[in-house]
Write a structure and sequence with these properties.
Blueprint (H helix, E strand, L loop, with lengths): L4 E5 L2 H10 L4 E3 L10 E4 L4 E5 L3 H14 L9 E4 L20 E3 L5 E2 L13 E2 L14 H4 L3 E3 L2 H11 L8 H11 L12
Parallel strand pairs: 1-4, 1-5
Antiparallel strand pairs: 2-3, 3-4, 6-9, 7-8
Length: 194
């Protein structure tokens, strides 16, 4: 099989939506993947879906296994990495979609429970070789190599252009979820957006 697109998700709940709605109806065994979850295949669209598992190690295992799987020719495939993330409630609301220009390997971050962090810390996360969040000096290019990746601007603009006019669904559950935030964070009370 020669997929046009490889759709990468991190966990099964995230993958389920793609499997049901695209759909990725044909299941292909994938015992070498980190989680052993079958691959999904849509032969008319030539889309292959994979669940890698959370974290760099799981993703590396699964993608390497997929790359070595003799059933697939991935030489011309485009890769779409799907992910969910939290958002600052001053900037986005539940259900919103964002396109990013950078990928950051969060596995490199050190963290402590924010409740145990020193007074004045705004987060419990801090970079390697620093004693506090946003600690000086700013990371050098060599420190960022392998941690921060800039995506193709053309690809980001293409994806944004395809989706910028779409209004994500706004369900009663989503409205109820964001209601407690609306008084303190006006943006968080708004309907989702791209």
């Amino acid at each position: 099989l020669a997929p046009a697109v490889v759709l990468v998700t991190l966990f099964e709940g995230e993958y389920t939506r793609w499997r049901e709605r695209l759909p990725l109806a044909e299941e292909l065994p994938f015992p070498a993947g980190a989680l052993g979850i079958p691959l999904g295949w849509n032969s008319s669209l030539r889309v292959l879906g994979v669940v890698t598992g959370m974290g760099s190690k799981q993703a590396a295992l699964s993608v390497t296994a997929l790359g070595h799987d003799p059933r697939f020719d991935l030489s011309a495939a485009r890769w779409v990495v799907c992910g969910i993330a939290g958002a600052d409630p001053r900037r986005a609301t539940v259900g919103s979609a964002a396109w990013t220009r950078y990928l950051v390997d969060g596995d490199m971050v050190q963290s402590i429970d924010p409740r145990e962090a020193p007074l004045g810390w705004t987060t419990g996360m801090y970079p390697p070789n620093r004693a506090e969040p946003y600690g000086a000096p700013v990371p050098s290019q060599s420190e960022m190599k392998g941690v921060v990746y800039r995506l193709s601007e053309d690809l980001v603009q293409w994806a944004f252009g395809l989706t910028s006019g779409i209004a994500p669904p706004d369900t009663a559950d989503a409205r109820a979820t964001r209601l407690p935030f609306a008084d303190h964070f006006p943006v968080a009370g708004q309907p989702p957006a791209v």
